[in-house]
Automatic annotation (TrEMBL):
Protein name according to UniProt: DAAF9 N-terminal domain-containing protein
Protein origin, superkingdom: Eukaryota
Domain DAAF9 N-terminal: 1-164
PANTHER family: DYNEIN AXONEMAL ASSEMBLY FACTOR 9, RCG26366
Native source organism of the sequence: Xenoophorus captivus
Pfam families in UniProt: DAAF9_N
Length: 181
C-alpha cells in the first residue's frame, strides 16, 4: 500500500508470498469481509543478505505467518491489536519500523516495474511513495529526504530472472493451471 500499489512491488509480493495477494484467492476472500483490503496490503519488507525485515499489522499477521515463519533471521515489526487501535501510534510505529530497517543501508533496490508493464525507472516517483515521504518527518522519520540518505536502484530485470526459474512452487502452480484448463 505504501508504494501506491506499484506493479513491480506487487509482482514481487505475489512471488515471495506464493500468490497470497492474487485476486480471487479462497483464503483471502473471507478476510476481505473482516477488514479492508488496505489492511491486508499493509506490509513493508526489506531483504538484506543476512536477514529479512518485515513490518505487518496485527490484522494481516496471521495470513503472512505461514509464509514467513521459516525464514532465517527474520526481524518482525508488529504491534499488538490493542496498540494498533490507536491510529496515530500505529502510523508512527510503521514509520519508525521503516527507519529502523533502513538505518544502515546506503543502497536499496526496488522492484519498480512488472514484467508485463515495463516503465522507465524514476527515482522521484519512488520519493512520492507515502512511506518514503514520511521518512523525512522530524521526530519519527529520518529527518531528511530518503533519496539523500540512500541510493535507490531498480532491481526489476534481475528479479524477472529469478521469477522465471522453475522452483517447486512455480512447478506446482503450473501443474494446477494445466489441470484447470
Amino acid at each position: 500500500i505504501d508504494s501506491r500499489y506499484n506493479e513491480g512491488c506487487t509482482e514481487l509480493a505475489k512471488y515471495l508470498f506464493y500468490g497470497l495477494y492474487e485476486q480471487n484467492q479462497p483464503n483471502m476472500e473471507h478476510a476481505s469481509d473482516d477488514f479492508p483490503e488496505e489492511m491486508l496490503d499493509d506490509v513493508i519488507m526489506l531483504i538484506k543478505a543476512e536477514c529479512v525485515h518485515l513490518y505487518c499489522n496485527p490484522l494481516n499477521y496471521s495470513y503472512l505467518l505461514p509464509y514467513v515463519s521459516h525464514w532465517r533471521n527474520l526481524h518482525l515489526y508488529c504491534m499488538t491489536e490493542a496498540e494498533y487501535e490507536d491510529e496515530e501510534a500505529a502510523e508512527e510505529f510503521k514509520i519508525s519500523s521503516f527507519v529502523s530497517m533502513v538505518q544502515d543501508c546506503q543502497r536499496i533496490g526496488v522492484a519498480y516495474c512488472s514484467q508485463g508493464h515495463v516503465q522507465k525507472f524514476d527515482v522521484f516517483m519512488v520519493e512520492k511513495w507515502p512511506l518514503i515521504q514520511a521518512f523525512a518527518l522530524e521526530g519519527i522519520g529520518g529527518g531528511s529526504f530518503f533519496t539523500t540518505k540512500c541510493k535507490i536502484v531498480d532491481m526489476s530485470e534481475k528479479l524477472w530472472q529469478v521469477y522465471s526459474r522453475l522452483d517447486p512452487v512455480s512447478l506446482n502452480n503450473l501443474l494446477t493451471e494445466v489441470k484447470l484448463n
